[in-house]
Amino acid sequence: MAESYPANEGRPRRRGRKVLVTLVVLLLVLGGLAVVADRVAVAVAERAIADQVRQEVARQQVESAPPEVQVGGFPFLNQVVAGRYDRITIRLRDVRGSVQGNAVNLPALDIDARNVRASLDTLRSGQGDVVAETVDGTGTISYDSLAALLDRPGLKLGERDGRLAVTAPVDILGQQLTVSGTAEVTVSEQGQVALKVDEVDAEGLPAVPLARTLLNNWAQGISIDVPLPELPFQLTVREVRPLPGGLAVTADARDVPINQAAG
After folding, report:
1. Is the pLDDT of residue 200 over 80?
2. Beta bridge partners of residue 180, listed in sequence order
3. β-pair partners for 169
4. CA-based nearest residue to 47, from 135, 115, 126
5. Is the peptide bond before 75 cis (omega within 30 degrees of 0)?
6. Neighbouring-strand partners of residue 251
7. Strand runs (DSSP E) across the chain, as ranges?
8. To the nearest whole number, what is the mean pLDDT of the chain?
9. What burial class does residue 213 get, using C-beta atoms within 10 Å of its C-beta: 0-12 exposed, 13-18 middle, 19+ buried?
10. What pTM, to 2 d.p., does this model score?
11. H or E element in which residue 70 lies
């Protein structure tokens, strides 16, 4: 006689699978909600930090477009609880400073703050300190701004084969000549841009020693240290490099307040 099996023997297995599927779906939904909440919290924090950065930049008498802030690290809410953020990047566009009455323009200043300490109450209320362990900044100074600081009529600066190119009209022994050459550009101990014109010539230069002496004297006259405007966040210039779009500036600082604590 053939053996028979209860018709409902497979139901507990099917019911168990349904429970497992339901549990997995529930976990996915909760996980998705957690991710959404995490991203919403990031957006709120970025707006709060951007507002404090805007106030700090204005306090240092530097003008710029509204700061763009991005908070790195995931999950963000864990960083909120710890009051420490792995990385905060800040972009300031159209940065404008002033040196000796001359405007100095940086089309963009990118700031990378690492290991930032900020309590939840500070982000919510704006009261307290937001401090970065390290801050690195990169930006580009327009050549027109740099030429204006040198205060030489008709002076044009640019980049040629990785060096600073110099062109200017110069009067030598009654002749209007166009001088061209290159300069070494470094950072002085005072954090200024140090220029040293080491190769210069002028087409049509009279073949007399005095003409060459006058040309060399002109070159020495612009081989000077050029002060830069105070950069935000206590950034100190460490390196400058001529690029086609301007003079690239690299700066850094340690233990920097990203905001000014309200009193």
Report:
1. yes
2. 167, 201
3. 178
4. 126
5. yes
6. 137, 237
7. 68-71, 84-99, 102-117, 131-141, 156-160, 163-172, 175-187, 193-202, 225-226, 236-243, 246-257
8. 78
9. exposed
10. 0.69
11. strand 68-71
- Token pair listed for 124: 């919510």
In three-state secondary structure terms, 150 is: helix
Helix (H, G, I), strand (E, B) or coil at 167: strand
Task: Return d(Cα 119, Cα 245) in angstroms, integer.
Answer: 40
Over 171-205, what HEC string results?
EECCEEEEEEEEEEEEECCCCCEEEEEEEEEECCC
Summarize pLDDT for 112-160 with one digit per residue, the tens: 988 888 777 776 666 777 788 999 999 888 888 888 888 888 999 999 9
Query: What's the gap between Cα 108 and its chain centre?
Result: 7
* Helices and strands (DSSP H and E) totals, the chain: 5, 11
* 249 DSSP β-pair partners: 139, 240
Of 48, 99, 57, 111, nearest to 250 by C-alpha is: 111
Summarize the confidence of residues 25-49 as an average pLDDT.
56
**DSSP string spanning 14-50?**
HHHHHHHHHHHHHHHHHHHHHHHHHHHHHHHHHHHHH
Q: Which residue has the tokens 């061209």?
A: 180
Between residues 183 and 101, the one the model is more confident about: 183
